[in-house]
């Protein structure tokens, strides 16, 4: 117990005193203090930094909102900082671990009720601990003709991912856009509901997002201003038809043409869901191992990559997307899409029944139907399980795509890493997720990965690209790139933080927002 | 000058001293103090209350953001409350007038630059004073193939309407959803940008809504936390085809069946834009006058309404909507829509070329193509120009629609007024706008209208319906209906208000948020 990191300004006795009071609320079993008792589940083992850099002092897991409020009040009284997690699967961005060592993890996994399923208006209300898989299975079991939209890992929290503004693979892939209605607990234990839910007997809490007066839901995302305890989530009615497709493009430089073709199809919605453009190694790593093609140090050489592409029938870029709707609508849109991307020399088109036995195409098809799975985790076997995601946003143009790609791949190679990435074509922007994979047991790799990430943040910012989300270790650095008018926006965040959480107990350091 | 209402706690000398300093910033011409000099333009002449209830002490109109910041700083120093307007056309909800007499109107009409038009990514950046008509004409003149989405009045502010979370008639009708990027000035003059604009050299400010960290744009809507000075607005690329349609339904009780048909078409997007269901008098008042059908007091009797419906080929309900996209997609969706609504007995379908010379259908078609016009103002001639809008939100079900309709029409009739209303079918909710029209010169009508409005707020709330927006005179009453957990959400609003505007100089009372 002597190695326990403590929150700033708290003695171990203060902390343990508070935890004892919390145990009276949640039961002893749900205050976790020792590694042997399960505290290791709250470590970030994939980080570029050692586990100690984000090691919690303990974890507490309330069973319901009432217990949660009591726990928060105790923490607020004593000054114990809390790091809220839902299912704790914020993989690549820190997982379940807190920003600062010694922070107590507030684990909401036990609050996992599906509170409402409204079939006719196509929404659910969930607690933080409800995972994609749980929700999916609930709908399946009850033959409810609604689709969820999931992030890649099935075990992720529906609410938690939306609060981090994550994305998915159906037309409902903008998870924050599909959120409708929040219940929030503040640092002092106050509970309130947003939007129409602010009316006691409202019948539209989960039907109309904005309510009356300031629309404040968004301030609780990627933030530490409050704790979301319930969320309304819109679901997509099962469409009358689906047509998933994959198109491979042979050359890295095709990226320019692909994106120029994509933009005028994405903006008016001819392409209805995220157009995911994964590079060769990403797609290949789902079905093969690095060793088969290269056993040396440093990035996999071009020759090995070409061999892999040929073996696996993959391109330098591989686009997966899907059409949804009445078959006649799908046919019309497909004609445009097929014709457009066929202009890229060497493009190869695969439909649903093609590529039999390719686990990459199988999991893509599942994600685009909102069927949660764990296939994407195969990627972690590529190098040994270390993994941080670099996720800058860029305009959806060929020039910007090539520029961002070049910055990331050339730096990755220079620092000795493979470039493993996806471009997500959004409505008007694209996000590039560079999965920086490394061996966490290798201190040198870890250090290089850590340096590379900082270089990428700086070079991206110099080119006008900002990250939409980032790993714990880089939250301050990324925040510092948001520098308009001397960081004026973060000063506004700090004012709101002080107003809603004056003692600064909620998630200190989250997204670069610290207590003052 | 002796009748000038003064802000609380300020002497006329304090106020005039501040205004003199503001005149040094903006020029004497742009500090308006006397009715004869144009102050009457800031009165709300359509209210149920006398003009004195919302009479400003004066108005000041800066030419640019720099002048605006200086004006705000002076106001903050002296304690002069400011009521910000963009084009001042918030008609039915208070127009340009402040919530509290004596507040100084901060008129941003001179800040009317279209700062950027991005054709390939389909957005514009505008200042507050840019009207729908101005933006439309700019795009037309330059042959830019982008459509705007306008509120009914052409003179409204693109930015201002979005900040009030107003709606329009194309698939981009949720104006707040189509906003991307804000610049805001706080009460102390601080300027910041939201989302990606918080990065100095960002290239995605108007492409990606959320940025990094808390997503705070929404707190500046329907609020008094800051002043929006620039906004990115997504525009719809001109579609390859458009098919507007109008369907009339003969009986009031058809509303139930119509809404039950509408919901499963709206939720999956078969109906792509707002399904506007206007009642007989709304649609009829566009092309005729009340006198032609009824000259008595009180609501127009059933017999007169039936005569009007027959003469004008209108139904008790009249739905206008449109399809957009490739012709083959339109054809497919139209088959479903035509077949579905034809199930309502007596439904009559009109397409674009039908109803030649009907100004009602003409203006509806224009709105659904984003062509600003002023036709809807014909409605104000119905009774003499008094007008407040009652706008509750309800679930999109037949039962709820009939219940809300009955509450509004029966109370309107009981208080002696016509029921003039539209239901807007949204994505999962519907909003009913009851235009309460009265003669503002008639003190008795005014008083009855005022009483009716309060009755409606109470009865709606008792049935679970809350207003999404309301007239100045009823902002506190509506806020009080948002009563969950003892009004906890408004207490949060007050905390944020205090943090961002500690002296409470911005728009006191807006949406029921007052300085403390």
Tell me the greatest interface.
Answer: A-B, 97 and 98 residues
Radius of gyration of chain A equals: 23 Å
How many helical elements of chain A? 13
Just name the CATH architecture of the largest domain in chain A. Answer: 3-Layer(aba) Sandwich
Low-confidence blocks of residues of chain A:
none
Basic shape of chain A: globular
Quick summary:
Chain A has 516 residues and is α+β, with helices and mostly antiparallel strands. Chain A has helices spanning 12-26, 65-78, 132-141, 158-163, 254-266, 280-285, 302-312, 327-341, 359-367, 398-414, 443-462, 475-481, 484-500, and strands spanning 31-32, 58-60, 82-85, 104-107, 114-118, 123-126, 146-147, 179-185, 191-193, 227-234, 236-237, 242-249, 275-279, 317-324, 348-351, 386-390, 392-395, 421-425, 429-438, 466-467. Chain A has 3 domains: 12-110 and 503-512, 2-Layer Sandwich (Uridine Diphospho-n-acetylenolpyruvylglucosamine Reductase, domain 2); 114-237, Uridine Diphospho-n-acetylenolpyruvylglucosamine Reductase, domain 3, CATH 3.30.465; 242-472, FAD-linked oxidases, C-terminal domain (Vanillyl-alcohol Oxidase, Chain A, domain 3), CATH 3.40.462.10.
């Amino acid at each position: 117990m002597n190695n326990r990191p403590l929150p700033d300004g708290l003695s171990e006795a203060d902390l343990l005193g508070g935890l004892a009071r919390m145990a009276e609320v949640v039961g002893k079993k749900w205050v976790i203090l020792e590694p042997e008792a399960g505290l290791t589940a709250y470590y970030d083992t994939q980080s570029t930094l050692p586990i100690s850099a984000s090691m919690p002092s303990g974890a507490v897991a309330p069973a319901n909102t009432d217990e949660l409020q009591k726990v928060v009040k105790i923490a607020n009284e004593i000054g114990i900082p809390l790091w809220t997690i839902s299912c704790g699967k914020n993989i690549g961005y820190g997982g379940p671990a807190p920003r600062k060592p010694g922070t107590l993890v507030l684990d909401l996994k036990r609050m996992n009720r599906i509170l409402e399923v409204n079939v006719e208006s196509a929404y659910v209300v969930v607690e933080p601990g409800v995972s994609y898989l749980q929700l999916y299975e609930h709908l399946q079991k009850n033959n409810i003709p609604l689709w969820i939209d999931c992030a890649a890992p099935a075990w992720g929290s529906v609410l938690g991912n939306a609060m981090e503004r994550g994305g998915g693979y159906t037309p409902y892939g903008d998870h924050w856009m599909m959120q409708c209605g929040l219940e929030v607990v503040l640092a002092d234990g106050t509970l309130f509901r947003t939007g129409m839910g602010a009316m006691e007997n409202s019948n539209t809490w989960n039907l109309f997002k904005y309510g009356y007066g300031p629309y404040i839901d968004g301030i609780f995302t990627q933030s530490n201003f409050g704790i979301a305890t319930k969320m309304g989530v819109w679901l997509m009615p099962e469409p009358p038809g689906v047509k998933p497709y994959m198109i491979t493009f042979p050359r890295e430089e095709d990226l320019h043409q692909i994106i120029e073709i994509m933009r005028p199809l994405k903006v008016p919605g001819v392409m209805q869901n995220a157009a995911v453009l994964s590079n060769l190694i990403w797609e290949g790593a789902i079905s093969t191992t690095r060793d088969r093609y290269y056993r040396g140090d440093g990035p996999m050489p071009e020759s090995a990559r070409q061999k892999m592409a040929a073996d696996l029938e993959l391109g330098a870029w591989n686009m997966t997307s899907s059409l949804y709707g009445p078959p006649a609508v799908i046919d019309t849109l497909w004609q445009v899409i097929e014709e457009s991307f066929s202009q890229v020399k060497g493009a190869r088109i695969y439909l649903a029944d093609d590529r039999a036995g390719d686990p990459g195409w199988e999991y893509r098809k599942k994600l685009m139907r909102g069927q949660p799975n764990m296939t994407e985790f195969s990627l972690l076997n590529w190098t040994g399980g270390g993994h941080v995601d670099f996720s800058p946003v860029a305009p959806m143009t060929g020039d910007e795509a090539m520029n961002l790609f070049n910055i990331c791949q050339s730096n990755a190679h220079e620092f000795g890493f493979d470039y493993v990435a996806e471009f997500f074509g959004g409505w008007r922007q694209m996000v590039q997720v560079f999965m920086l994979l490394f061996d966490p047991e290798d201190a040198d790799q870890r250090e290089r990965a850590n340096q590379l990430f900082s270089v990428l943040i700086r070079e991206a910012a110099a080119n006008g690209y900002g990250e939409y989300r980032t790993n714990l270790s880089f939250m301050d650095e990324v925040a510092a790139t948001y520098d308009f008018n001397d960081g004026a926006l973060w000063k506004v965040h700090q004012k709101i933080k002080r107003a809603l959480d004056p003692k600064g107990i909620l998630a200190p350091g989250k997204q670069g927002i610290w207590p003052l």
